[in-house]
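User: Before I run my own analysis I want an independent prediction to cross-check against. Here's the chain; please return only the structure tokens and, at the end, one sentence I can use as a sanity check.
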Amino acid sequence: MKLRKLGRSLEVSAEGLGCMSMSEFYGAIDIAEALRTLHRALDLGVTLLDTADVYGPHVNEMLIGRAIIGRRDEVILATKFGQVRSDDGAWHGVNGRPEYVRKSCDASLRRLGSDHIDLYYQHRVDKTVPIEETIGAMAQLVDAGKVRFIGLSEASVSTIRRAHAVHPVTALQTEYSLWARQPETEILPTVRQLGIGFVAYSPLGRGFLTGRFRSIDDFADERDVRRTSPRFMGDNLRHNVQRLRTLERIAVEKGVTVAQLSLAWVLHGGDDIVPIPGAKRRRHLEDNVAAVDVELDDDEMRKIDEAMPVGVARGERYPDMSLIDD
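Assistant: Structure tokens:
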């Protein structure tokens, strides 16, 4: 596995593993296979495991903690706080108050079975709390040895700059893929200017860029949140599938899967970008990891860009975009 650096000094695998779907949101759950997938990821050299207290809720962190018993030194453990859910799954908004930051960190450490978190993100920006107060509390966690590095998720340029002025931000995590290229305009230039790494979540467009989903009926489980995603509905989905066909032809010519092509495109965007595709089965993990070795020349990059230009996807990324800091 190749390595990349987030920020000034956090070295991670060039591709991480998003663990959310192992516990919720994307259909049926298989804990035994999830554990085998996590162990296989470590065997393949994937070091960056990405979770959050809200996934499950809470049980995803417990799953990761179980998987890394005896292997903690092989892992860069990333988790998040800020989106609030009770044990029954109900959502209670966003909380960035300092006392909540401290409480959340201690709870995550218990569930993860670790004495420290390598990379601790604010999951969503609390627009009712000055970012300086939230980052100040996170900086105290660093001083206490509970957290090594801090990050932000889905934060605006202004928030990133204000946060970084309080304490160095090591990574910004934001959705980025061939059908979510919005960070290219302002976000990526800003984090590069500040020396902040970029972690791309949903680099396969919530599975769309694998080519497996062409109809809402392909999501058999009624609990699958993609059934209510604007990009997977009606005319939006028909438009998006039509554009995907060109990308699939390029993948066939290249001799790779469309998922590998899509991940390779993200990886070729710069050595400061680390995608974290989700996988809850070993076969999907192995397909994704192979993308690290896919080389793309300038002509291939041009063809991909022409097939999936900025703004190509039809439909909002989420049914409710109010939690995105813009």
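Sanity check: The two ends are 35 Å apart (CA to CA).
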